């Protein structure tokens, strides 16, 4: 019953709303874009992988796809400005390195910083001009989710390095709920945080991790 109530809320609040999802070509981003689309939103799916975006559009015919490498500051800014205004922004795109600390090199650091930090700042500046603390009195809310590695395992944590595989398995073994977290489950939390049902939640990070950090 509660689930259906939320579904009805989503139908009412997202229909016709303009939603931008970065890293929407596969995995969690794909699931998020699909969920918004199913509730009537006008979805803009951004990714650097054109083939993945075209596969998304084959399934969700009215999605607008945007192919750009988020490391390109100016082109990203230009394309995001071209689709304004945006009502909901989901900064989903991210990369991870699977090297041990002593193996990390400057190129890997630059890649992480450019995609996981600079791109988020760039897209968010272009869409909302600021963040939760500054625009809270104008109705702008900013939250994030912290999904378990199992959500993005195939995209970000697959490695031929046996040490990395072993360490990843240790993380998975810590989950209290003994199954992988699905992208659709994490997408549900994004929907909730984007809806009026979470109207008094801002500046928060919600774990979606099957209880990894509860022990």
TrEMBL record:
InterPro entries the record matches: L-xylulose/Carbonyl_redctase, NAD(P)-bd_dom_sf, SDR_fam
GO biological process: glucose metabolic process; xylulose metabolic process
Keywords: NADP
One of the record's GO molecular function terms: L-xylulose reductase (NADPH) activity
Keyword rRNA-binding: no
Superkingdom of origin organism: Eukaryota
Family: Belongs to the short-chain dehydrogenases/reductases (SDR) family.
Protein's UniProt name: L-xylulose reductase
Source organism of the structure: Folsomia candida
